[in-house]
Task: inverse folding
């Protein structure tokens, strides 16, 4: 739906579909649109993610009247064969083709070689940022040996050896110079045709046949002298015209050399920007590596903390198990001791109880005997009161002495039993105190372990905060790199437009002042954009130095170098602007 709206909004003769995501179905729709609308002669498909099959469909639908095809930043690859077939067809007159960054490999250049040998209309071909290599460069050089019409070919950033790249540039320069010489020779021939006029012969009539031969010879001599004088005059004029044309050709050569110097300067600026981009990418790679190392260290530290936490948990569980085992063992030992004490003292208590029962029986018997004796004494009292009292007192003393010793022994045994019970209670109390002390120590150890775990969690949290801050810095660097890439792409577009405009100006024959003014405007725009990019880099370095408190010597050196370069460029730009204003004003 979005693609249909974009196609409906296009107006001839330019078809611009940049940054559209075109799959095979989208390419089929674009091909049908081009087949139905043949008035589009300038086609731009920049950054549309077009693959080889989709590009073949589009090439089959391009109109023979098309002049430019811009398909940079795609993934055409082997689909370039369809474009080569189209360019080998004499009915197609494409003049400019841009296939920058399209995954074109060395094997695909064999097809480009065949196309260059047969094509007569193509004047500009851009194959920058592909995968051509040494083998592909040899194919291109072979094709250029059979081509005299291609005036611009960009094969930079393709891993081509310097020798082959120099030969390709020399071959393109030969095509340019031969084209210029052809134009100049064409102008000279036209001027000569205008100067030289054929000599009109005098037809023979009846009147002339009557003139004597001497008069005829005299007239012929005069005519020959006039013709010689006219030829000498024309030769002098031609010599002057040749000198004037030579001067104009020298001026044009100097102007072309100056323009080529300006273009080489722009290329050098662009290469500097590419170098700076590679430096930024290296810094980004270093920051990413540091971030990965921090992530690994954080993961390793987190794993150590988790292992320590697991070990401490295991230690706590071992302590709890040991405590429970000791507690159960103490309880079991206490139970065994109490059972042993009960087992040891129960027979004694039973013996004492039996003796006590026997003594109570003996006491009951004694009381019964005493009652009987009392009855007997009561019977005998009337007669023998004094004897009875004496006998009773003696008997009571003897009985009391006899049984008091046994009662004291029983009381001693009872006291010993109570003391043994008290010792057992004291031991049980001491065991309970030990258990309570162990529980207190266990609680304190558990609290200490929990505090250590909390501290480790805080450390992990701080580490995560640091990692998040570094990730924010990394995202900022990525955004800056994206902005720089966008500016570099704009510079490349402006350079391509400058080359295209220069070629068009050469074809149209624009006067020198307009060419110089337009070239100066382009140079000023490129210089201004370059200064803006360097100023952004300076601000970025200042921000990095403020974050690191000026401790990085490398950043400070780069900052001072960029400041010096920008200051010199600004002064040169002011002087150059004043000079150009004086020349053009």
Result:
């Amino acid at each position: 739906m979005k693609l249909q709206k974009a196609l409906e909004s296009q107006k001839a003769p330019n078809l611009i579909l940049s940054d559209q995501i075109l799959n095979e179905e989208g390419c089929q729709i674009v091909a049908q649109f081009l087949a139905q609308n043949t008035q589009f002669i300038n086609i731009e498909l920049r950054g549309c993610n077009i693959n080889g099959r989709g590009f073949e469909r589009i090439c089959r639908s391009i109109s023979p009247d098309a002049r430019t095809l811009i398909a940079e930043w795609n993934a055409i690859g082997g689909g370039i064969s369809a474009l080569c077939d189209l360019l080998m067809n004499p009915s197609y007159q494409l003049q400019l083709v841009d296939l920058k960054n399209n995954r074109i490999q060395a094997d695909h250049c064999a097809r480009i070689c065949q196309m260059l040998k047969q094509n007569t209309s193509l004047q500009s071909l851009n194959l920058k940022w592909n995968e051509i290599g040494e083998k592909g460069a040899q194919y291109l050089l072979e094709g250029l040996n059979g081509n005299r019409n291609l005036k611009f070919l960009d094969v930079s950033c393709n891993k081509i050896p310097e020798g082959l790249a120099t030969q390709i540039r020399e071959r393109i320069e030969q095509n340019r110079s031969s084209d210029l010489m052809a134009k100049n020779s064409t102008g000279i021939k036209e001027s000569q045709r205008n100067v030289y006029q054929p000599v009109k012969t005098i037809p023979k009539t009846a009147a002339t046949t009557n003139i004597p031969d001497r008069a005829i010879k005299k007239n012929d001599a005069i005519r020959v002298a006039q013709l010689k004088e006219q030829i000498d005059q024309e030769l002098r004029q031609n010599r002057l015209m040749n000198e004037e044309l030579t001067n104009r050709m020298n001026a044009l050569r100097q102007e072309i050399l100056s323009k080529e110097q300006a273009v080489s300067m722009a290329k050098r600026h662009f290469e500097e920007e590419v170098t700076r981009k590679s430096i930024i990418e290296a810094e980004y790679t270093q920051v990413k590596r540091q971030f990965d190392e921090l992530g690994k260290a954080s993961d390793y530290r987190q794993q150590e903390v988790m292992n320590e936490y697991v070990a401490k948990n295991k230690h706590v569980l071992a302590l709890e198990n040991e405590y429970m085992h000791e507690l159960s063992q103490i309880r079991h030992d206490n139970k065994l001791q109490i059972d042993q004490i009960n087992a040891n003292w129960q027979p004694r208590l039973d013996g004492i109880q039996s003796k006590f029962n026997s003594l109570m029986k003996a006491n009951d018997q004694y009381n019964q005997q005493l009652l009987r004796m009392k009855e007997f004494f009561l019977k005998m009292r009337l007669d023998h009161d004094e004897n009875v009292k004496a006998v009773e007192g003696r008997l009571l003393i003897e009985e009391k002495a006899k049984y008091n010793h046994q009662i004291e022994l029983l009381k001693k045994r009872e006291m010993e039993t109570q003391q043994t019970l008290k010792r057992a209670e004291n031991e049980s109390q001491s065991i309970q105190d030990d258990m309570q002390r162990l529980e207190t120590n266990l609680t304190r150890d558990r609290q200490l372990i929990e505090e250590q775990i909390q501290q480790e969690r805080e450390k992990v949290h701080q580490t995560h905060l640091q990692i998040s801050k570094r990730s924010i810095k990394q995202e900022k660097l990525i955004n800056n790199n994206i902005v720089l890439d966008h500016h570099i792409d704009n510079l490349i577009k402006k350079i391509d437009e400058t080359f295209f405009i220069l070629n068009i100006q050469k074809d149209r024959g624009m006067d020198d002042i307009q060419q110089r003014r337009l070239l100066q405007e382009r140079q000023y725009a490129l210089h201004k954009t370059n200064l803006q990019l360097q100023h952004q880099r300076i601000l970025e370095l200042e921000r990095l130095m403020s974050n690191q408190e000026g401790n990085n010597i490398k950043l400070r050196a780069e900052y001072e170098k960029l400041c010096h370069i920008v200051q010199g460029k600004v002064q040169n730009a002011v002087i150059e602007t004043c000079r150009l204003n004086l020349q053009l004003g």
Notes: The two ends are 54 Å apart (CA to CA).
